[in-house]
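Re: adenosine-5'-diphosphate structure - here you go.
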Amino acid sequence: MTHGSLEVIVGSMFSGKSEELIRRAKRAVIARRAVQVFKPLLDDRYGVEVVRSHDGDSFVAVPVRTSSEIPPRLAPETTVVAIDEVQFFDAGIVEVCRALVAGGRRVVCAGLDLDFRGEPFGPVPALLALAERVDKLQAICVQCGEPGTRTQRIVDGVPADYDDPIIVIGAQEAYEARCRAHHQVPRRAKAAV
Ligand code: ADP
């Protein structure tokens, strides 16, 4: 086996992270490497057996509930491991990636560097620090057309509050790419009780 390495692809939503992960996976197949792609099971927006970019490109993927499910699902011949939506994994994903790399595998992770509040997201900062290669992609801000680096959360047509729960029952929810200047995270005063 060759030396292992860790590549991390980050950016806001719509910055092209899944596109880039799929591109690297497809190129590894062309190079006749055995490739496996994993994704967290909670992300079932497009069905459970593929990763799919917003542009429609896709690659077969293994959905897993926790980071500890990845090593047992790894085929012995796999030399390239790609993990999409890596921000949703538990902290154990860092050690899983480190062990895969130590075993000589090429590991490619893609995920949000920042949450909707604009704060570092879960295990991603640690993965960025450990990576041999980091690519920070930019979307287009839907407000001004400048590079979009942040993910705007909209609940019922207005910017989500800093303290809004992650799941708002019955609400219409959407996400947009925005630049730093147009990213809004209000802290509305709570009604007095
Ligand atoms: P990510 O995984 O980072 O959310 P995807 O790879 O799924 O991104 O999708 C990237 C694609 O999304 C772009 O190639 C483009 O076709 C589309 N897209 C839609 N809205 C935007 C936007 N505001 N900025 C850039 N790309 C966008």
